[in-house]
Amino acid sequence: MRVGVLTGGGDCPGLNAVIRSVVRKGVQEYGFDFVGLRDGWLGALQNVVVPLDIPSVRGILPRGGTILGSSRTNPFKHENGVRRIQDTLAAHHIDALVVIGGEDTLGAAAELSRQGIRLVGVPKTIDNDVPGTDYTFGFNTAVGIATEAIDRLHTTAESHMRTLVVEVMGRHSGWIALHAGVAGGANVILVPERPFDIDQVCAWVQSRFKFNYAPIVVAAEGAVPKEGRMVLKDRSLDEYGHVRLSGIGEWLAQEISQRTGTDARTTVLGHIQRGGTPSAFDRWLATRFGLHAVDAVKEGDFGRMVALHGTRIVRVPIPDAETKTRVVDASLYDEFEVFFG
Ligand code: F6P
């Protein structure tokens, strides 16, 4: 059997660990051979296929990024997208695909699967917002990076007795903000799921100063004030209709400064959260996902996604474009309110 592998959407640490594990088990245990499709669905549309064998996956386990490249290409936004993908698969005698992606790439995979393409999904993203799995790989690494940044910001904030706002990724879900904020001992954590009251944020900041501590405010890029809108970087949309975010951190620092008469600055962590070497947990999870994905291919269990439930890897239907994003639920967020202010 010949299996194609692709990585789509925003990259995250651990993608290479999945590729390695799929190829290692597929070749060694099942006698499959593999090819890589470059840059997610783009390579499938444009017939850009590269060899993928055991020598080409040696040494990639600890490497961030993806050796196959990635893009936010939506095959349904391209003329004859499905037919062109089928042509590429036929031209290279590819029997099945392992699709490693987040909500968008997997949403396209779900539809392609309905249209007859044999594929298995693997959930990735630093945002941890793919429905059907307790965790995605990439998230743990991003939380580690954000937590380290918060630890560092505490000491400089204290030296200058000013508020430091940290903007982290997370368009629709505040998983990174919540986990890193709690781990880093932030005084305010703002997530997209819970529109915030700027007066309350300022009150928390001021109460922190009263105890002679400098406030740290962690905000997900998709956090929104109750009376306001998401802050956009610009108005451009990607092929899945997403806007580019960033700016809420800067807005918060300005408002805090003006309303409290104290100094406030912002750090935007941005793509630093996605780059570099994966944590041990993400290598472990990505490796397990890869092993189970190739088993699903072997068993012909297509249209399914590997997922983590507790400590078990299971198979679930691939979430389609209609499935709701996995967000932070209100009761979980409320658990930590005791630390605010
Ligand atoms: O992968 C998802 C994500 O991390 C979002 O949180 C963020 O908005 C987006 O990627 C930004 O990615 P890019 O700059 O690659 O479009």
How would you sum up this structure in a few lines?
By secondary structure, the protein is α/β, with parallel strands linked by helices. The protein contains 11 helices and 13 strands.
Protein model, in words:
By secondary structure, the chain is of the alpha/beta class. It has two domains: 2-138 and 278-317, Rossmann fold (3-Layer(aba) Sandwich); 140-274, 3-Layer(aba) Sandwich (Rossmann fold). The protein contains eleven helices and 13 strands. It has helices spanning 15-30, 41-46, 54-57, 81-91, 103-114, 139-160, 175-183, 198-210, 248-260, 280-299, 330-335, and strands at residues 2-7, 33-37, 49-52, 96-101, 119-123, 163-168, 188-190, 216-220, 232-237, 243-245, 264-268, 304-309, 312-317. A seven-stranded mixed sheet has the order 3-2-1-4-5-12-13, with helices on both faces. A four-stranded parallel sheet has the order 7-8-6-11, sandwiched between helices. Strands 9-10 form a two-stranded antiparallel sheet. Helix 1 crosses helix 10 (280-299), helix 6 (139-160) packs across helix 7 and helix 8 packs across helix 9. The longest helix has 22 residues, at 139-160. It is elongated, with a radius of gyration of 21 Å. The mean pLDDT is 96. Bound molecules: 6-O-phosphono-beta-D-fructofuranose. 6-O-phosphono-beta-D-fructofuranose is lined by residues 9-10, 102, 125-127, 169-171, 221, 245.
